[in-house]
Specification:
There is one protein chain. The protein has 492 residues and is of the alpha/beta class. The chain folds into two domains: 2-138 and 146-157, Leucine Aminopeptidase, subunit E, domain 1, CATH 3.40.220; 175-490, Aminopeptidase. 35% of the residues lie in helices and 19% in strands. Strands 7, 8, 9, 10, 11, 14, 15, 16 and 18 form a nine-stranded mixed sheet that branches. The chain is elongated. The model has no long low-confidence stretch (mean pLDDT 96).
């Protein structure tokens, strides 16, 4: 969907539909002007509770030629004093679902006028762009009849301004990146393989002038990334380590390193998963997809920071060459790991990637994202990602970024006592302990590979995929992580 801007008054702009916002406790000047043009229809509906302004409510009204807009879509935003950027994003997303229902492909929006700053413009554009998303790459029937949005025109009643136009461009860059991430997670495992993720990184490198390197099996062996190799050796699709480098800061500044788990399909390996629901394990590379999306957005926005994305990627399959429970691996760091569960593979590929980042980039900080544990879904459901780390300032900064952008995160403790479950009798560590505190145990395991570098681990197992449509997130891949990381990196 394209976004255009216009300085036309909402009351004078011809369009198939005009989107405006209103509140439970205050209708606003634009609402009153539209009501006057419609001979008091809106107030009469409000008196009968058909228009109540409640959050997430929408009402579409035909104007019968009394306004240049053919339809008026009223979006409830709750109480005026409780308006936030997330309310505006959700309102815009709800508007997209209402317009989709009547197949209105082009429309105008004055929803941002319910807010008071350029951030309101960005929020509305973000909610609309993400709410317009669909993934139908594999549907072959009735293509010509499928609906898609064409153009949203943002109306500035008193003329556009530089800050608002910049907000539109920022929203477009971020949402393009989220859509890349959603697409990667939505494709099936026979399409998105380690080779496919590597090719996507190379394409981003060429498009944006990023540094890119893909370590194949010979180099992985030479560098002794044995934990990554072990996870991937049970598949015909060979593992890889992908790096993307963006240099937007001072040359002397150490980079921020982002590490994303890239298991493109997770059968569980020898510790095989139950068959029911295993098809969803194509999304076990959502952390890698988020890192690729973030690097695209960082480059498109030309942020003044150095960022390196590192993606360890593999398939976890149970062929005759697969690693087994009871095996002992020596990770790149030299740490020995007893394998007690081959379905605890994500932490293995991440531990090598984190150590690789430390030794090759000496980062200012590291953040990893991974669909790591089902225990995180049990603990937090699908409303928040889990976060753990060794640096309180970094964790708080990420939590604040999550609140601002609507990708909420919740901190779990990382006390040393949790490490007792990860001690092995025959090696330095084991890769899986008790089911109790499973998310924290996995985070504690990763902590052993980051040294003193500030680090945060984001477990996105419950937020990377949703079975319930939300205002600006359809069922399926959410693209979580991209907006959070861009919000954090933009504030550095």
């Amino acid at each position: 969907m394209k976004i255009e801007t216009s300085s036309a008054s909402p009351l004078e702009h011809g369009t198939p539909a005009l989107v405006i916002g209103y509140f439970q406790d205050a209708k606003g000047e634009l609402f009153s002007q539209c009501d006057a043009a419609l001979d008091g229809l809106l107030e009469r509906l409000a008196a009968t509770k058909e228009l109540n302004g409640k959050h997430n409510s929408t009402r579409l009204i035909h104007t019968m030629g009394r306004l240049p807009a053919e339809r008026l879509l009223l979006v409830g935003l709750g109480k005026q004093g409780e308006l936030t950027g997330e309310r505006l994003r959700q309102g815009a997303g709800n508007a997209m679902q209402a317009l989709r229902g009547v197949r209105v492909a082009s429309f105008a929006s004055a929803l941002h006028l319910s807010g008071t700053s350029d951030s309101a413009v960005e929020a509305v554009c973000t909610g609309a762009l993400l709410g317009s998303y669909t993934f139908d790459a594999y549907k072959t029937k009735e293509k010509e009849e499928r609906f898609s949005f064409d153009t949203m025109t943002i109306l500035f009643a008193e003329g556009g301004n530089e800050g608002a136009h910049a907000a539109v461009q920022r929203a477009e860059a971020i949402c393009n990146a989220v859509q890349l991430t959603r697409n990667l997670v939505s494709h099936p495992g026979n399409v998105v393989t380690p080779a496919y993720l590597s090719a996507t990184a190379r394409e981003l490198s060429e498009r944006y002038g990023l540094g890119c390197r893909v370590l194949e099996m010979d180099e992985l062996k030479e560098l002794r990334l044995n934990a990554l190799i072990a996870v991937g050796k049970g598949s015909v699709e060979l593992p890889r380590l992908v790096t993307l480098e963006y240099r937007g800061g001072e040359e002397k500044d150490p980079p921020v390193v982002l590490v994303g788990k890239g298991v493109t399909f997770d059968s569980g390996g020898i510790s095989i998963k139950p068959g029911q629901g295993m098809e969803a394990m194509k999304m076990d590379m959502a952390g890698a997809a988020a890192v690729l999306g973030t690097l695209q957005a960082v480059a498109e926005m030309k942020l003044a920071v150095n960022v390196v994305g590192i993606i360890p990627t593999a398939e976890n399959m149970p062929d005759s060459n697969a690693f087994k429970p009871g095996d002992v691996l020596t990770a790149m760091s030299g740490t020995t790991i007893e394998i007690t569960n081959t379905d605890a593979e994500g932490r293995l590929i991440l531990c090598d990637a984190l150590h690789y980042a430390l030794t090759n980039y000496k980062p200012s900080l590291m953040i990893d994202l991974a669909t790591l544990t089902g225990a995180c879904v049990v603990a937090l459901g699908h409303e928040a990602s889990g976060i753990m780390g060794n640096n309180a300032e970094l964790v708080e900064a990420l939590k604040g970024a999550g609140e601002r952008c609507g990708e909420r995160i919740w901190e779990l403790p990382l006390w040393d006592e949790y490490g007792e479950a990860m001690k092995s009798e025959i090696a330095d560590l084991k890769n899986a302990g008790s089911r109790d505190g499973g998310t924290i145990n996995a985070g504690w395991f990763l902590k052993q590979f980051v040294g003193s570098t500030p680090w945060a681990h984001l477990d996105i197992a419950g937020t990377a995929w949703t079975d319930k449509a939300r205002p600006y997130t359809p069922k399926g891949a959410t693209g979580v992580g991209v907006r959070l990381l861009i919000e954090y990196l933009s504030s550095k």
